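Narrative of activities, Objective 1.

The group set out to show that a structural description can be obtained from nothing but a protein's sequence at a throughput compatible with the screening campaign. Below is one input-output pair from the validation batch, recorded exactly as produced.
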Amino acid sequence: MVELFRVVRADKGAVLVLPADGLDGEHEPHRVTLDRDGLVGTEDGERLVPTVGDWLLVDETRASLRPRTTALVRDSAGATSRVQALAANIDVVLVVEHLDPDPDLGRIERMLTLAWRSGATPVVVLTKADLVPDPDGMTAEVAAVALAVDVHTVSVPTGQGLDALRALLVPGATLVAVGPSGAGKSTLVNALAGRDVMGTGERRADGRGRHTTTHRELVPLAGGAMLIDTPGIRGVGVVADDDALDTTFADVAALAQACRFADCHHAGEPGCAIRAALDRGELAERRFDSWQRLAREAAYQARRSDARLRAEERDRWKKVTKEYQRGLRGPGRPRP
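Output recorded for this entry:
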């Protein structure tokens, strides 16, 4: 009999799953062992590493991965061109950033680009509002770069802003929290869950939080929503497309469209609308630099991915050719 399960935690060589009718926070997950490569087949013959939030069809002999409706992915570390799925089948990406120390606008833009690329809805959550003298002013600075995105300022100790986030926890919705170590993701998840489901750490002497979450985990809530906490991300490679970048940087993209030349490099060409906006002070140099940096990273990752796919296709045809030639020779026939 085939049963449907949700991955609540992914470890090397195995996943912890809950049955589709047991996502109420009252059931204990059980372990499903993967193949020796840690991969699961899909309906179209592809083999992928399962991640938190995936849906698996499991029978007595094997597991198969259902198609992902959305996926939050990052460029993998090292020289490989493969991407890493951080969470799948998500509805909302909570981009969590602290107000103390000061928020990193470039990091928020990076996370928003990943969130838009995922297909889910991004929401910015600014934590530790009780530790700064002007949370409203800092929130306005973030909102100026988080275009078309809801920005919530919260304080878990005082309860400020939590009701607006709880409104997102509708039955069946899956939310994932991403952000740097010390941003208070686990504390936020615990507050939204109404119980301690993730470990938290004390602040260091320099005011930054200690990294506590070491794995991604899906937490079913009593009301029917699900939350995914993730380890802190110090640096994350961008996997993006033009639509994701243009959405995150809609202001810059609109200026680029107004340039006189379609291939304008925005480096002094005549009729450059971006350069004119920079000169007038209407566009911050920092935001322009951030847009260029993320565009270069996305283009580089896309080139690496294309090269990998071409190499895999060559290897596949080499294998097909060898099998064909082996069939022509027949069993036991020597090579001419």
